[in-house]
Write a structure and sequence with these properties.
6 strands; four-stranded mixed sheet; single chain; globular; fumarase; two-stranded parallel sheet; alpha/beta
Length: 140
């Protein structure tokens, strides 16, 4: 099913999501690297944007300085979400972010942070995986 999530995302917006849904985030999507998570949590630095109800993309933007001194975006590449695991639970609690777009898996700390703060997590896939696993038979 197609789902459109518009930021700021509310708890109720996430309740009807199911595995297999195609999600179209609209509104604010902020790129956020592991160093941003670390600076925010370990060093207590404030982010330059308010993420409450917003979505983040674990990514590394590549920018270059133009001749006039301004910067331009060249490209954005995903970075492995597991790199944020050490900070993600506290980051979710602190920022109020509701949607995380990432590459690879997220660990138990991130999933716990998502569940406690009603953010989107891998938790919703457990019942589907259990149904799939019940159908799998190995050939001996």
């Amino acid at each position: 099913m197609k789902k459109i999530l518009t930021t700021p995302i509310k708890d109720e917006d996430l309740e009807s999501l199911n595995i297999g849904d195609v999600v179209y985030p609209t509104g604010t999507l902020v790129t956020c690297r592991d160093v941003d998570h670390r600076h925010s949590i370990e060093l207590g630095r404030q982010l330059p944007v308010d993420l409450k109800g917003d979505a983040i993309f674990h990514a590394r933007p590549i920018v270059r300085q133009k001749e006039d001194g301004e910067y331009e975006m060249v490209s954005i590449g995903p970075t492995t979400s597991m790199r944020m695991e050490k900070f993600e639970k506290a980051f979710i609690e602190q920022t109020g972010v509701k949607l995380i777009v990432g590459k690879g898996g997220m660990g138990p700390e991130t999933q716990q942070g998502c569940m406690e703060n009603k953010a989107v997590s891998n938790e919703k896939k457990k019942p589907i995986l259990e149904r799939i696993n019940a159908q799998i038979r190995f050939i001996k």
